[in-house]
Specification:
The chain has 78 residues and is α/β, with parallel strands linked by helices. The protein has a single domain (3-77), classed as Rossmann fold (3-Layer(aba) Sandwich), CATH 3.40.50.2000. The protein contains three helices and three strands. The protein starts with a strand and ends with a helix.
């Protein structure tokens, strides 16, 4: 059995296209951990993947919408 980690941008155009592949992987007995935000929980869990969430607001700087939290997020999920 393979172990797959999916880390994806929390947006409809990123999450939705990945769900079919994730479902196929879990149906084939692969272990999938999917990292995304809470708002996509029900759709991701329906695939059989394990969901690990991160708070989106903490990944953006307070004064701008610049993405700045990937190193911090990576340490928290590993």
């Amino acid at each position: 059995m393979a172990r797959v980690l999916v880390v994806i941008t929390p947006a409809e155009g990123h999450v939705n296209p990945s769900l079919g592949l994730v479902k196929q992987l879990t149906d084939n007995g692969e272990e999938v951990v999917y990292v995304c935000t809470e708002e996509y929980r029900s759709r991701i869990e329906q695939t059989g993947a394990e969901l690990r969430t991160y708070p989106l607001a903490e990944l953006f700087g307070r004064s701008s919408r610049k993405f700045c939290g990937l190193p911090r997020m990576k340490r928290s999920i590993i």
